[in-house]
């Protein structure tokens, strides 16, 4: 039981929690419909939404490919912003 509490405490250290006022300002400046951007994001609920049934796991390769493509697109966007206009 103690190990689970230690792990939970370590996990909380990985996240930055902003005050409600700051979170609201971020949402106004950078609106997002992506569930990954939610301040109360729950990874288990998100995975369950992607794979609501055992049968839906047969599409896992397709879901992973879509996520990899999204990651690559974001990486490219970050690279172009960092490099700036040519």
TrEMBL record:
Domain of life: Eukaryota
Annotated GO CC locations: cytosol; GARP complex
Pfam families, sorted: Vps53_N
Descriptive protein name: Vps53 N-terminal domain-containing protein
InterPro entries: Vps53, Vps53_N
Classification via PANTHER family: VACUOLAR PROTEIN SORTING-ASSOCIATED PROTEIN 53 HOMOLOG (PTHR12820:SF0), VACUOLAR SORTING PROTEIN 53 (PTHR12820)
Domain Vps53 N-terminal: 39-84
GO biological process, one term: retrograde transport, endosome to Golgi
